[in-house]
Amino acid sequence: MEINGLDLIEAVDFLKVCQKSANIKPYRKPILKDHNGNLEKSWFVEFYYWSDSDQKLKRKRLTTVPGIQSPNYAKSKKERYSEFKVIIDAIDYLLRHGWTPENRIPENNITKVADPEYYLAAEAIKRAADLKKNEVKAKTEKDYQRTASKFIEFLHLKGLHEKPIDKVKRAHVLDWLRSVISDGAKPKTRNNYHSYLSGLFEKLIEEEITNVNPCHGIKQLKTTVEKHQAYTMEELKIISEFLAKHDPTLKTYIQFIGFTFLRPSEILSIKARQVNLKQRTILLKANKAKRGKTEIVFVIDRLLPALNEILEKAQPNDFLFSKNNGPGPQEMKHTDLFSRRWNKYRDIINDQYKLSLGPNHTLYAMRHTFIQDIYRTLRKTCTVQEAEFKIQPITRHKTIDALRKYIRDFNFELAADWSDNYSLDF
After folding, report:
1. CB 134 within 8 A of CB 88
2. Residue 8 near residue 66, CB atoms below 8 Å
3. DSSP-assigned states of every residue in 197-259
4. N or C: which end of the chain has fewer CB within 10 A?
5. How many helices (H) and strands (E) are present in the chain, helices listed first?
6. What is the CA radius of gyration of the chain?
7. Contacts for 70 with CB less than 8 Å, ≥ 6 apart
8. What does the CA dihedral 63, 65, 66, 68 come to, rounded to 10 degrees?
9. What angle is formed at CA 400 by the lines to CA 395 and CA 406, rounded to 5 degrees?
10. What confidence tens digit (pLDDT) does each residue in 108-152 have?
């Protein structure tokens, strides 16, 4: 293809300077014919341009252009896809601005534009997950890494791992999400994978590695939300006495949940040196707090005895709760250990005391139980608005709307008896 002294990249640069877009002609976008990735065959770019002489669209096939060595000499798929992408992007830009192979493009002194960084599908997804590492908390970063790992496995299975990332389409993502469900995952898990994969593609768009997020337009599946079940006062009394005898550490952990309203992961991050008994405060670091900022949590009277007992055994750099079943230097990174212990005790308590504690009677449900107790106590003497105003700094909800939603979701506010509002007789 002759372009009158300018190679293809220079022609693109020239058009970017001149912006000759007034006489755009019909054309079809250039596409790569790669023979399904077969390196033994000669790949080429195919496009259609408008011929002024013939007054119709004419097909053009190129294996190379002036100024660029034929990508068919590349020995790896990554190299070949990368070099052909430069050609495709350049031809597409030219066609969009009215150029055809029959046009004459004048000489001009142009500085070449640097090629963008190029990734194949599998390494692009891995790259996105690695970039997320410095943007999110450790737990979320693991979710991104797990999603990337599983999607890369799928790409290998479908032979897409060495294809350009732009070759990954919505149909492929849907196929993967269906396989997640087929493997036994619940709709909520499938929806989480969808959300994390979408986040990875958004990162690739931000880094200009791709232009399209194939996750867009895929609907979330409907899920059944199983809420944590609050405990009754009778159940709490039995649990308290049982744990005091059989697992005092777990009882102390629950006291932290119910008397500070910290989340389990926040509690496990606290070291002894973050506690100031004189000021009755706990310093919660920003990188561990769910709200993403440093917080000061007040230590109420009900928690002081248990906290004092822990601090008597702890060194300044010890975690209040560690793998040693008490204070110690080893961080307990997951709350599963306490959850498994509680699940075991829950079954024993049911047998011994003839209770009906179910799977939704979780440790986290303790938090809801204690908040519900405070709210309903406040409502005996306060209006709804007054109770909300008083409880928000205690529960540490960001906004009053978030608190109200929480109250609605867990039915803290029960309607008063409405018997007198009926006019019918039945």
Report:
1. no
2. yes
3. HHHHHHHHHHTTS-S--TTTTPPPPP----PPPPPPHHHHHHHHHHHHHH-HHHHHHHHHHHH
4. C
5. 14, 6
6. 32
7. 63, 64
8. -80
9. 60
10. 433 444 444 568 899 999 999 999 988 888 788 999 999 999 999
